[in-house]
Amino acid sequence: MASRIALLCLLGLLVASPAIADSGIYYQLELMWPGAYCEQSSAGCCKPTTSAKPARDFFISGFTVYNATTDAPVNRCSNKAPFDPNEITDIPGLKQYWSNIKCPSNNGQGGWKNAWKMSGACSGLKEKDFFEKALEFRSRLNPLVRLQKNGIQPDFELYSLKKIKKVFQSGINATPLVQCSMGPFNKYMLYKLYFCATEQGTFIDCPVAPKYTCSAEILFHPFKRWMLQQLQGEDAEFAAAADGDDQDAFVLPGVAMDI
Ligand SMILES: *[C@@H]1O[C@H](CO)[C@@H](O)[C@H](O)[C@H]1NC(C)=O
């Protein structure tokens, strides 16, 4: 009997030990709604020069590793790993969901390099793991699908800020920070969502919560691919595709919705 208990204890330790691993960090994922970006940016928004079409969905616009003790981004270390574009070429969904639609059109490398330098290089994560982790969080959140299942969609309508937060609260048990920007008719519109997760991947309310100004009801601006400006003489194929299909040919694998 005693040896059985000892064995159970040992098994318990073995099972529990990975969860105990904790280097005192948490993650913050910043997601941007491209429809709001295109609407508010004076230069508009531009189709990236990569072959992949940006997703018709929230994009990753930042992924930051925080020190859980100080709540400061982990961005100082003596040994910053340099950014190597070749490390991330094969990551599924990177070009679609971490897309850079700034004008003039660009290939996204600048944004990824910046994210790596600002937050990845000192995070203790390998470069590929850093980007994959951000994409994995994004797909677990699956924010557009989650919102749409609750009747909240990018259709120019006004939606209750409280209800938007509640959709996530009841789905992932954490409340996002919502950042608004000024939209048409002087209405605040949904611009960015910020989510935090522990090192083990559990979503939590972000410990650092700057106050963003929104109204009680905010506009959810449509995002259509035709909003992305073409380079002159760019492929007609893309323009035609943007006109017709309202479906994304690309779906990130492993997206599980449990709501
Ligand atoms: C977090 O900050 C504390 C206090 O400065 C420091 O001792 C610790 O090493 C930091 N942790 C990480 C993961 O950077």
Automatic annotation (TrEMBL):
A GO biological-process term: RNA catabolic process
A cellular component annotation (GO) from this entry: extracellular region
Pfam family, one: Ribonuclease_T2
Alphabetically ordered keywords of this record: Disulfide bond, Signal
InterPro entries per the UniProt record, alphabetical: Ribonuclease_T2_eukaryotic, RNase_T2-like, RNase_T2-like_sf
The protein's name in its UniProt record: Uncharacterized protein
Gene3D superfamilies cross-referenced by the UniProt entry: Ribonuclease T2-like (3.90.730.10)
Organism: Setaria viridis
Homology family: Belongs to the RNase T2 family.
Coiled coil: none
GO molecular function terms listed in the Swiss-Prot or TrEMBL record: ribonuclease T2 activity; RNA binding
PANTHER family: OS09G0538000 PROTEIN, RIBONUCLEASE T2
SUPFAM superfamilies in alphabetical order: Ribonuclease Rh-like
Top-rank lineage group of the source organism: Eukaryota
Signal peptide, first to last residue: 1-21
